[in-house]
Amino acid sequence: MEPPKMASPKSAPKDAQVMAQILKDMGITEYEPRVINQMLEFAYRYVTTILEDAKIYSSHAKKSSVDADDVRLAIQCRTDQSFTSPPPRDFLLDIARQKNQTPLPLIKPYSGPRLPPDRYCLTAPNYRLKSLQKKVSSSAGRITVPRLSVGAVSSRPSTPTLGTPSAQAVSVSAKVGTPVSLTGQRFTVQIPSSQAAVKSATPTTPTVQNVLINPSLIGPKNILITTNMVSSQNTASDSNPLKRKHEDEDDYDNL
Amino acid sequence: DRQTLVAVLQFLRRSNLRESEEILRREARLLGDDLGGSVATVASSSPGVAAVAAAPPGKGGARAGTAGSLPAAGGRDAGSQGSVAGVVVEDQPDVSAVLSAYNQQGDPTLYEEYYSGLKHFIECSLDCHRAELSQLFYPLFVHMYLELVYNQHESEAKSFFERFHGDQECYYQDDLRVLSSLTKKEHMKGNETMLDFRTSKFVLRISRDSYQLLKRHLQEKQNNQIWNIVQEHLYIDIFDGMPRSKQQIDAMVGSLAGEAKREANKAKVFFGLLKEPEFDVPLDDEDEEGENEEGKPKKKKPKKDSVGSKSKKQDPNAPPQNRIPLPELKDSDKLDKVMNMKEAARRVRLGPECLPSICFYTFLNAYQGLTAVDITDDSSMIVGGFADSTVRVWSVTPKKLRSVKTAADLSLIDKESDDVLERIMDEKTASELKILYGHSGPVYGTSFSPDRNYLLSCSEDGTVRLWSLQTFTCLVGYKGHNYPVWDTQFSPYGYYFVSGGHDRVARLWATDHYQPLRIFAGHLADVTCTRFHPNSNYIATGSADRTIRLWDVLNGNCVRIFTGHKGPIHSLAFSPNGRFLATGATDGRVLLWDIGHGLMVGELKGHTDTIYALRFSRDGEILASGSMDNTVRLWDAVKAFEDLETDDFTTATGHINLPENSQDLLLGTYMTKSTPVIHLHFTRRNLLLAAGAYSSQ
């Protein structure tokens, strides 16, 4: 290995020399020259952050100048926030003892890919396609689905009621990476099985434009509405050419 | 107490605190200097003034008024309380001398004096005892230094360190360097390792004779300071028998917590292998009958079941089959086993005369970013984890990597056709390399599942990610460690996996639980390496505290502690028969351990830098080690493990006598030009694959 390129004492600024000396004291003999720059930058950033915090604390305490106590407090707060250290040993032994008491769970045979419940997986689609058309077409014979107003229109996480408010909330699984426009809102809807109620409710929700719900998801009692789905069921053949063609077969989570 | 008062009065007078002295005298109703025959000095509780006075030895007729227990022992009190010590002095001039002495110097004289007194004693002791008693130096040094720091005697601590740190053994140098940076009490708070060191007991194994010698000396010398530290912070595991030689001791010490207590290694460990399930194997060439039914012997087949073991008896050292729940064998697994067997039949028998060929996979243009490598069991895929947080999978065989078709296309294929497994793959996505994005930090560990469906990767961002190798997407992110995770591995039967990280614990997970099933806590420093035993019932963890621990999956207990390495452990390998464990660390030595007895049985010296890869050949005849010194070395494992002397004495006391046979066991050294070796893998036919990233320095 070629010798480390340390700045010669004559040309390096004093801070860099100090850093080089610190590295030497800690026994580090081989390092890239950019390490010193990185350490200098870290030291500068850390010290200025602490001093700024200390200034805030001292002005809050209505002191005329920053003193050691302010700096100490600033350091402590920053340490708890950024430079956390792993939990202490007795705590770890304690939780380990608790965790290790439960017997290992039995494995169900023939259960396909063994993954945690969907809300803990990253397998859900993390996007939705926005449909632009405003027509609310209810094809005959099909269950017309109430449409929800999604964040783009109103930012209230409203649970639209359809005559029968949802008594049993089925929460939408938290999708990782929900589209930005939604800002992580969730909706729970329970659609009663009676279609009449649904149909009657439909005209009362004219504000919905954006998200149409795939009626293939409607189960017997509860449905899980994912807000990031677009369905082509209720759109006529003038569907948005941008829409995917295979939405009917998309395998969304069925409950 | 009267003497205490007199001493305090003396002290106050010396410090010219006349008024206080008067008040105290009035209250105590003492008149004049009344020293009498003996005086005990007491230090006041102000920091910097607290002192422990050493008794000049050999003053006859003096009462042993020593009570030198520093209240900071145990390190739990806030701030420094007064320390009480007794000094036996004969007459006044001595008192004043002592008092003036400690006035100016305070603590360090006494600590340093104690330490140097002990040093002198040990150096003058008999040779046979000296090696054992020298073990005391390091823990005593560290504990005294930490006490000084904790009580905020900064300058005293510094001078104590300066004076004695050169005397310590060379393999403690790294620890001492860390210690030298701990100069204030606040520094200690952030350093978990040092706090753990302070609160846990350092284990020393000393023979009874040496121990008696030490005890007698400490108690008669009346400087109970050291005796108190010994009782408080050290655990002396006494054994009856011959004192150990320096060589024996050096082999076993080195960890952050001393050695392992003998009881720690006494639990029964089921190191045998699980019986393979019996199922009949269809013969390939003369396969007229096709699949045979179970249990029906055919006249062509010489063996009834080729996969399962023939003996019906349970191996006494093997765990019961259902000790821990294991996933059942699927059809694809059975096919895999058949393939495995066929390959095993064509396996090259290795030995000192027949060394394996080595095929090296060099990662180019990695710019020192390659941090983890794994190869599937059938050597068809290789994965690299990189510092830029990507995980890249390559196909080693001409068969390219394909992902499964989308759901739409899948509905169109003919599900009844014979090659449905081929048809579900999308040809358009075939490529030799797949890049998996998802982590937000360097990927430090990767592991393929035995059925090649999943890939695990663990990273500095604290998560372990499960990737599907059929869709090449990320399925789950397991969050539990909130600190960098250094290593992860799938169990040999799949479903379970273990991960170890900076938070000093290893966790056992199952792919279908989002929280860990077991937490293995006990190490004093980061867990750097985690491996499953071939029977999936035990997990070995190597740590930066220089110990290896073997944990039981069933109940999370630590069943073995192996000490002896002088640096953080970076590689572990179980022998295929499950009886032995090989470990490699930054000190360049490979140590071999007998799991059943819990003893070190071999030491392989030769490498000059950290050993990052260790692997036994498929039948356990050869141990291959790869290291940062750009070499792969092959060692004769059969010879290393034969003729183990495990008589009662050895197992009872844990003494080992390692033969210096590293040179005999070394079968070959293979150098790369400038590529450190970070992964080794024996194919099913005993071809050795090695992997590393080319570094141009």
Q: Can you walk me through this structure?
A:
The complex is a heterodimer of chains A (255) and B (697). With 255 residues, chain A is mainly α. Chain A has a domain at 14-90: Orthogonal Bundle (Histone, subunit A). Chain A contains 5 helices and no strands. In chain A, helix 1 (14-25) packs across helix 2 and helix 2 crosses helix 3. The radius of gyration of chain A is 30 Å and the shape is extended. The relative contact order of chain A is 0.11. The model of chain A is unreliable at 1-5, 138-145, 147-241 and 243-255 (pLDDT under 50). By secondary structure, chain B is α+β, with helices and mostly antiparallel strands. Among the domains of chain B are: 1-29; 107-259, Serine Threonine Protein Phosphatase 5, Tetratricopeptide repeat (Alpha Horseshoe); 370-644 and 676-693, 7 Propeller (Methylamine Dehydrogenase, Chain H), CATH 2.130.10.10. The chains are: A mainly alpha (255), B alpha+beta (697). Chains A and B meet through helix 4 of A and helix 8, helix 10, strand 13 and strand 17 of B.
Topology record:
The complex is a heterodimer of chains A (255) and B (697).
Chain A lengths: L13 H12 L8 H27 L7 H14 L7 H13 L93 H7 L54
Helix pairs in contact in A: 1-2, 2-3
Chain B lengths: L1 H13 L3 H11 L63 H14 L1 H18 L2 H7 L3 H14 L3 H11 L8 H9 L3 H6 L1 H8 L2 E6 H13 L3 H10 E6 L6 H7 L78 H15 L12 E6 L6 E6 L5 E6 L4 E5 L5 E4 L2 H4 L9 H4 L1 E7 L1 E4 L6 E6 L5 E6 L3 E6 L4 E7 L5 E6 L5 E6 L3 E6 L7 E4 L5 E6 L5 E6 L3 E6 L5 E6 L5 E6 L5 E6 L3 E6 L4 E7 L5 E6 L5 E6 L3 E6 H5 L6 H6 L8 H4 E6 L7 E4 L5 E6 L4
Parallel strand pairs in B: 1-2, 3-31
Antiparallel strand pairs in B: 4-5, 5-6, 6-9, 7-8, 10-11, 11-12, 12-13, 14-15, 15-16, 16-17, 18-19, 19-20, 20-21, 22-23, 23-24, 24-25, 26-27, 27-28, 28-29, 30-31
Radius of gyration of chain A: 30 Å
Instruction: Give the second-level CATH assignment, the architecture of the domain at 14-90 in chain A.
Output: Orthogonal Bundle
What is the CATH T-level topology of the domain at 14-90 in chain A? Histone, subunit A
Mean pLDDT across all residues of chain A, rounded? 66
Largest interface, Cβ cutoff 8 Å:
A-B, 41 and 56 residues
Topology of chain A as a string of helices (H) and strands (E): HHHHH
- The number of helices of chain B is 19
**What is the CATH first-level class name of the domain at 370-644 and 676-693 in chain B?**
Mainly Beta
For the biggest sheet of chain B, the summary is: 4 strands, antiparallel
Number of helices of chain A: 5
Outline type of chain A: extended
In total, the number of strands of chain B is 31
CATH superfamily label of the domain at 370-644 and 676-693 in chain B: YVTN repeat-like/Quinoprotein amine dehydrogenase
The rounded Rg of chain B comes to 32 Å
Could you estimate the helical fraction of the residues of chain A in percent?
A: 25-40%
The fraction of residues in strands of chain A falls at under 5%
Cα-to-Cα separation, first versus last residue of chain A: 61 Å
Average pLDDT confidence of chain B is 79
Instruction: Give the full name of the CATH homologous superfamily of the domain at 14-90 in chain A.
Output: Histone, subunit A
- Second rung of CATH, namely the architecture of the domain at 370-644 and 676-693 in chain B: 7 Propeller
